[in-house]
Amino acid sequence: MTSTTVTTPSGSKPAGKPAPSYFRSKTLTAALAFLFGSIGLHRFYLYGMRDKWGWAHIAGIMLGAVGYLLLAATERTSVLGWVMAFPGAVSLLAAFLSAIVYGLRPDAKWDAQFNAHTNRKSDSGWTVIFVVIFSLLFGAFLLMTGLALTFQTYFESQVEAAKTLSQ
């Protein structure tokens, strides 16, 4: 059995698995995070199907979908629905944040981390900037909407509790 080594700026070190031979596009990664990040597709593109965080995205969005349906059926009164919706919201917002982080990473740093094994260099242009802009737009909108609905539900429940106490 042979061992694989990875060459880094500080020398070579043994690796657990060989480096993939394909070029990883920063623009494609940011777009995958924006469009399909809630199911972890950007993580699987970068790290392969064994990436635990990619699978965590899938589990989170599935729990979130069930929680959302439970909240819709109970008019936002189910505590279990809120608990189950939380991982889905985290997965969705983390995907938009990932698109922003990947898109804003300098090309040289991107290539050093993900494309050191290839001879190609990233040359991202305006497309990745538009992905970042839309990720910020949609991510901020969803975060603000989620916070508004959460606080509205909380304060409505407090008003209802105060009404029952005063009667």
The main sheet orders its strands as 1-2
How many structural domains are formed by the residues? 1
Helices, by number, come to 6
What's the total number of strands? 2
Distance between the termini: 78 Å
Oligomer: single chain
Task: Give the integer mean of the pLDDT values.
Answer: 87
Sheet/helix structural class = mainly alpha
The SSE order reads EEHHHHHH
Strand content: under 5%
Inertia-based shape:
elongated
Give the helix proportion (percent range). Answer: 55-70%
Q: Report the major sheet.
A: 2 strands, antiparallel
Low-confidence stretches: 1-15
Taking all Cα atoms into account, the compactness measure Rg is: 21 Å
How does this structure look, described?
There is one protein chain. The protein is mostly helical and 167 residues long. The protein has one domain. 69% of the residues lie in helices and 5% in strands. It is built from six helices and two strands; from the N terminus they run ββαααααα. The chain has helices at 26-36, 41-47, 52-73, 79-104, 107-114, 126-166; strands spanning 5-8, 11-14. Strands 1-2 form a two-stranded antiparallel sheet. A hairpin with a 2-residue loop joins strand 1 and strand 2. Helix 1 (26-36) runs antiparallel to helix 2 (41-47), helix 1 packs parallel to helix 6 and helix 4 packs antiparallel against helix 6 (126-166). The chain is elongated. The termini are far apart. The model is unreliable at 1-15 (pLDDT under 50).
